[in-house]
Amino acid sequence: MTAPLTADAHAYGLVGDGTADDRPALQKLVDALGDATAADGRPRTVRVPAGRYAIRDRPVLWRSGVSLIGAGRGATCFALANPGAPTRPVPLAWFTTAQHGADRDHHIADVTFAHFEIDGSQVETEEYEVLAKGLGLQYVLRGRFTDLYIHDTAATGFGCDFLQDTVVEGVLAERCGRQDPGEEMGGAGIGIGVGGWGPVERLAVTDCTATGNGTNGIFLELQQDDWAPPRGIRVTACHTEDNRYGISDWGADGLLVTGCTMLGNHVAGFDVSAQGTTSVGGRGGIVTGCVIDGNVGDGIALGNTPGPYAFRGNRVSGNGRYGYWQHNLAGGDQEPATDIVLESNDIHDNALDGIRVDAPLHEPAFFGNRIRNNGRRAAPATDGGGEGVHCGPLSLTDENADWLPGGHRGKELTVGDGRNAVVRDNTATELTLAPGRPGADTAWPGGTPAPGTAYRLPDCPAPRTGLTAAAAVAHPYVHGNRVRDDGHPRTQTHALWIAHEATWTGGRVSGNDFGGNASAATRFDSAPSGGRWRDNDG
């Protein structure tokens, strides 16, 4: 076979009729172009016209210097399936350390994947298989992944690791991680392993969208715990929605997240923790100019990090638990996080505390934030049933109710047969419910409850504050914040609460507006020790 610089896939045996297995022809073409590139150093391109190209039972082993270009997301589709190999994962393209010996000296270079769709809906392995991805390449140098639509894969959609001098842009990942219940490795829309190239990995993830994926929308994960968390990674202008986590930093250093939206994710909008395979949280990150809104759990969940980390100029609002939650998962780093900065954020209308500190902090700085109208989960316990009660796939309506709008946000609803759902929000008569899992179209396993079904909702917790310290806080700088409630009714009970299990040592608390909360400006169940407290209103 001759090896042109640009090869038309149809001229080399690919059919694209959705019936014929196009994998053997594509593998033969990739091998021929890869051999030619290795011989003369000139990268090649496969151009794939519109059509549906079946890739069955085996992935295509990719070669350095070979690019794959389609005719557009809606035109060129690679349909993955494994009817003859039920135990085998079938990504479109793979090249990995475990299977192929990929490393820094044996890598994929100078490749572009662009303008096509990957449909993973027909891959079903007997047990969950982390490699059942859409794309599964490791150790890529000078790569570009652009304008891809990857959906319904059994594991991660875009699952490429160790990307150096690489751009991932305009990737749409939907409903990936079908076989991941949320507790397995992988199962993300865009999941990128990091650390293989050393302490610097130059990677940009930009203008990507991840919705309804089994675990993360977008995550960076350190792959070996003895590797240095890498710097050089940027996530910009991305959107994550209805995933378990929106964007997660599980082991980078200095991750930059800018201008992103994280909406309606089930556990947290933005997460730093020991959730990853190496139990190493990120550190040194900066999150700026993001909208982190309406997540079922927390807006920002930060833990298992030695610090620093900074959040500046974000809107963190309408989340079903805390706006910002400092915590540590078991098994990860437990040392106090140093130099956590929250600056000029608008943290409002979250169900419980605006900021909750449940893990030790050393020298945190909270300044210039507007922390207002939190504690919206203020409605008392209630129950009902009978006439006027009816359910939809994502709702429960009681025509006889008169609930506080937003007052049940984040509560667990129980219906008569013992099934549970989580309330995303409510009006006076209707509860809006979260899907039962990311990507689902119903909150109800087993079908929608019958009309008149009895239900109950638990009581609201108290206190619900602007800033709660429930762990050791040493030498904090809390200055120039507006921590109050101007809502009707007021639901943020206090501006600042130091819980009985907390210690608050030294530091400075000054120039804050603590007025206008429902109960009092402050509540000290544990007295602060030392420090300077001055010029605080309220």
Structural class: mainly beta
Strand content: 35-45%
Q: How many helices in DSSP terms?
A: 2
Q: Report the major sheet.
A: 30 strands, parallel
Radius of gyration: 25 Å
State the helicity in percent bands: under 10%
Low-confidence stretches: none
- First-residue to last-residue Cα separation: 81 Å
- Average of per-residue pLDDT values: 96
How many β-strand stretches?
51
**Shape annotation:** globular
Keywords:
30-stranded parallel beta sheet; about 550 residues; mainly beta; globular
Describe what this molecule looks like in 3D.
The chain is globular and about 80 Å long. 4% of the residues lie in helices and 43% in strands. The chain is mainly beta and 538 residues long. The longest helix is centred in the N-terminal third of the chain and has 18 residues, at 23-40. The protein starts with 5 loop residues before the first strand and ends with a strand.
Concise description?
The chain has 538 residues and is mainly beta. The protein has two helices and 51 strands. The model has no long low-confidence stretch (mean pLDDT 96).
